Structures are given as C-alpha cells and as structure tokens.
Amino acid sequence: MIYYVYSLPAHEKPQVLIDQIQNLNKFNKHFSVLIVIHLSQRFNLTDEDLQSIASQPNVLLNPERLITGFMDGSLYEAHLSNISFLYSNKIQFSHIIFIASNMLFVRKMKKITSDFIGSSHDAVTHRGWFQAWMAVRDNNINKFQLYGCQIEGLFISKKLLDKMLPYLKSISHKALFIDSDSLKRNTFYVKLIRQLRKYRFKKWVKTNYPLKPIRYFTFSHFSFARIAYATEEVYFSTIARLFEKEFTFHGKEISFQDWENSNIVTVQSINWLRSDENKDYVCTKRVDRVYDDPIRIYIRNLSNDV
Asked: What is the set of domains in the chain, with CATH numbers?
C-alpha cells in the first residue's frame, strides 16, 4: 500500500516540475509515495516533455487536463480530479497530501497519525480572511457551517476521504474549467464580482459591517460566480468537519508559509525549518518557479539527513 499520495496541480516548465518531483522523492525515501499530477491545459507540453515527467520515480500523470488559474476555484477541481483518478484506479493509500508547484521539501517527511488538521478556522466569522466574503455567498456550500484552511500541506486520511468524497463531488463545478471559450466569458464576470468583493471586504474588516445579513444579496446563483475565489481553501475543510466526531483532528499542515515576510522563503527561514525548534513543518513555499533561482539551488543542495 502507498503511504502518502501527493496531489500536485502543475503548470510549470518541465524542468522545474521535474526538480520538484526529485525534491519530493529525496525527502520521502523512508515512505512509499505516489505523486499524482494534474497538468493544466495552460501548460504547453510536447510528447517528449510528458515522457520526461512520467518517467520520474513514483509519478502518476492524471490524463484529465482542466484549465486552471489563480484563485478561481480551479485548484479544487484539479485536486478533486486527482482524487477521482486515484479511486478509479483503486489505489490504496494511507493519506493524501495537497501540495503546490512552488513548494519544496527542506527536511525529511514525518509520520502523520491524524486524519485531518486541527487548525481550520470558522470561515464566516474570521475577519481578515478575504475568502470568507465569497464563501458565505456560495450557495454551493453555505448550507454547512463554513471552515477554511491553507490547502498547501493539508492532509486527509483515506478513511476520512472515503466519507468526504460523495460530498466533495456534489459541490464540484468541473464543467466551468473544461471549455476555454466559456472560461473567458466567465472570467469577465468574475472580474466584476472581485471588484465588488474588494469593496465589501475592505468595509467589512475595518468596521462592524455585518456579513451574514447580506448573504442574500448575492451573485452565487450564477454558476460562474463560484469560480471567483479559492474554493479549495473552504470546500475540503468544511466537508471534513462534518465528520470531526468520527476521526482524529490534530496537528498542522506540513507546509510553512512565512506570512509576516510576505511568504518569501529565505536561507534563514530554511535553516530554522531544519533546526530542532521546528516541530511541525517539513516543506515551504513560495519558492520561485525558476530552475536556477538561488533559493531553489540552496534547497537542491540540502542533505536529506535532517
């Protein structure tokens, strides 16, 4: 059985993607792993490129290719596509872990004993988290109590995922990310919605402006409105919490993001992550998606004995 499956939505140059695959294999040698990769339609690849990626150890290429973008709900669909591909192939595993293409390991992967993280927050009342403004208006999911979390480094046990999957599929809008012409049209409307979101959010976080009462004044009955925010940061954590009493929820995501330093990875932060002071994290982002980036080179030269 595979211990960890890593779900990776990718849209980078093949050399950078292969560098990430090699990094993951390097720091996961003591576990059986599988890296299932969703390749965006925006990712122009030759047959030779595909062969180079597919030939890397522990890699499984998802044949479905959606059109992915930034904070538009597409990453949820890409991860869900990877999950569906795993289930259709009846691959057995202990945990699935969601990773990003600008994330790299800096120390050995640890053993996860929990079914889910314990730090997801209430997405409706958490001021300062701008995804909440759209999530509360998303009729697709606001029938539940909403929770949010960082998707990078999030883990879910297979047993919990079995329970979650019917719900996850029921709130999917994959069709929005298949046709490029439809996506262009939807993106135009999404830009309008985001401008309104910025105005509402600015007013909400700086005053006592009520959030819940205005959920009924919404665009979310239009399907394109659901791609106006990073749904993956709400959907997985919200559905997981439906089963909190049945499973173990503790620990943190495995990926460190330096929020106070604008998510910039430095040599100093890497050295801290590799020190005994760090008890939680094994990888970090955002590492520039450039093969010869100095930080990427520094990480590439790290030993895997920590």
From this structure: 2-253 (3.90.550)
